[in-house]
Amino acid sequence: MLLCQAFRQHLWKLAAATLACGAFLYPLPVAVLTAYYHQRGNSWEPAAPVTLHFWMAVTPIASLVLFGLLIVEIRNTREIRSY
Question: What's this model's pTM, rounded to 2 decimal places?
Answer without folding.
Answer: 0.81
